[in-house]
Amino acid sequence: MPYQEKRAWFMLGVIAITLAAYFAFISLVRFDSVSLTVFALAGFLGLRTSKRRRGEVTYDERDRQIERQALVATMCVFYALILVLSLAVDFTHRWDTSVSLWMVIQIFWAVSLVTWGIKALIVIVMYHRGANA
Fold first, then answer.
1. What is the pLDDT of residues 70-100, one digit of tens each?
2. How do residues 31-62 score in pLDDT, each as one tens digit?
3. Residue among 6, 120, 1 nearest 67 (CA)
4. Cβ atoms 33, 102 nearer than 8 A
5. Domain range enclosing 78
6. Burial level of 92, CB count in 10 A (0-12/13-18/19+)?
7. Does a structural domain hold residue 92?
8. Number of domain units in the chain
């Protein structure tokens, strides 16, 4: 299994745990400034093994192409989700009332984690497709 695919599986695990904890927490506390602290679990996405730093893992052209395609697809999904959720919040709260800052920040973090998860899924799928990813 390539290093990039292992990393994608690790990212999916961290994102699933973070989102599960977030939804469990907001079901108890509702949208509050305190429920934003659950996204601190996403900090584990920054963990890396030392292989990459010592130069033992090298990316070839296929790895770079998979990374580029996954990044472009995720950025498109990210902007689309931000737009859709922002409009949904505006419609549900009416246009003349304000939306709390904590809700906007929580929407941003949730969408960010979902898009990282989509990127990880795209990387895994492209590696399983083979050389014509």
1. 899 999 988 888 888 778 877 777 766 776 7
2. 666 667 777 777 776 666 545 555 566 777 88
3. 120
4. yes
5. 3-50+61-129
6. exposed
7. yes
8. 1
